[in-house]
Amino acid sequence: MLADAEEIARWPTGSDSFVEAFAKGLALIGAFGDSPGGLTMAELAKRTGLPRAGVRRLVLTLVTLGLAHEHDGRFALTPRTLRLGYAYLSSLTLREIAQPMIEAMARECDEIVAVSVLDGNELTYIARAEPSTVLRRSLTVGSRLPAFCTSMGRVLLAGLPDDQAEALLTRAPRPAFTRHTLTDVKALMRDVGKIRAQGWAFVSQELELGACGIAAPIRNEQGRTVAALNISTNLGRHAEKPFVKRFKPLLLSLAQKIAISLPPE
Questions:
Q1: Which residues of 28-56 are buried (b: 16+ CB within 10 A; e: fewer)?
Q2: Domain boundaries of the chain, sorted by first residue
């Protein structure tokens, strides 16, 4: 509910900075929450604390606008009211949607969680969360890393057609950061194909010794990969196989949750 009867009673009177009729209309829309069978005029008046005559005018206005309908004396909102929420959702960026979700995941996992997008041959962090119990690293929102040797980078490459991914890898510098770094384009493309088929990536110690991460794509409603979600750790905290087994289901679930929260393009 946008506002209950007690809160409405505390509203200021109408002025050039507060349109009371508009506020009452919004409050009435909010009053329909948790009422699958609809509400009568009397029930709406009770929920809002507004005079029944005023509620009647507001409800009939909603009906006229196609935002509500009536059946057997009970009123319910129509799907058209979703446009009001969509106006807000469509204004949110991927980062604004993902940040509170990854913060909750970081607390639950006690590990670093991040979201990145592909920019040329690098990935760029657009959201990041880390629990206070882990050793903090210098990476922040806006930090950039090579795509070819990171779990998020490989997921983002897997979201491209093969020819584009291969061309990007061929042009990109591919230094061996550690003895585990995969630098051969053909070997990288094989891994990219595997990641595309299974829907997630695990990369260990290719950028930094002792560090590993698991990543999954965040896809829009057309199925295009728009970002990558990652949980990373230090191998002093988890062995590789237990890490993947424990966190992969959480990662895939969160990636899907973020995806369905994205507004249509």
A1: bbebbeeeeebbebebbbebbbbeeeebe
A2: 5-88, 92-261
Q: What is the pTM of this model?
A: 0.66
Q: Which of the listed CATH numbers 2.60.120.10, 3.40.50.740, 3.30.450.40, 3.90.800.10 matches domain 92-261?
A: 3.30.450.40
- Tens-digit pLDDT profile for residues 151-205: 999 999 999 999 999 999 999 999 999 999 999 999 999 999 999 999 999 999 9
Q: Which helix (H) or strand (E) holds 203?
A: strand 201-204
Residue 119: strand, helix, or coil: strand
Where in 72-191 does DSSP place strands (E)? Answer: 74-77, 112-119, 122-129, 144-146
Look at the block and give the residue holding tokens 């996992």. 109
What H or E segment, with its residue span, contains residue 214? strand 211-219
